[in-house]
Known about the structure:
This protein has 174 residues and is mainly α. The chain has helices at residues 2-11, 15-19, 25-53, 57-68, 75-81, 89-98, 120-140, 147-164, and strands spanning 73-74, 102-105, 115-118.
Amino acid sequence: MQxxxxxxxxxxLSQKEQALSRPSPGRxxxxxxxxxxxxxxxxxxxxxxxxxxxxxxxxxxxxxxLEESPEGIPxxxxxxxxxxxKSGLTRVIDRMEEAGLVRRVRxxxxxxxxxxxxxxxxxxxxxxxxxxxxxxxxxxxxxxxxQADVKALTRALDKVSAHARPLRPGRIRG
Length: 174
């Protein structure tokens, strides 16, 4: 134990600093490329979605979840499912309601909760948005990868997702 403490003192690192992990340069480069690419693609796809369909990706995220539950989703459950930040979700739903994409409904059996339900216009917008979104995914992501790249990337991200999913319950689906 004294030898370990002496080594720490000699290296000039605190116990807390010693306990932190240090990814290798290769792993750091991989992380950096993943993170930069993910953020760049998110921004690019959002800009294209707004230009082509007139909605931001955050609205698309909401519409995807509503499509899975056309009878509606309670606001609290929707906040847990969306991939984007749940901060300001009420304002997002306000704007989507103003645009005619969703409506709020109070269930007769539970007057305390509010369901968010897609409208016909919301379903139509979802279909148009999906076509543009998938085209963007293909142009900016998929077509730049070989089938071997896709398999390797999927295998690697499955591992990361398996670790991250339990840390962010309700937000990442298997």
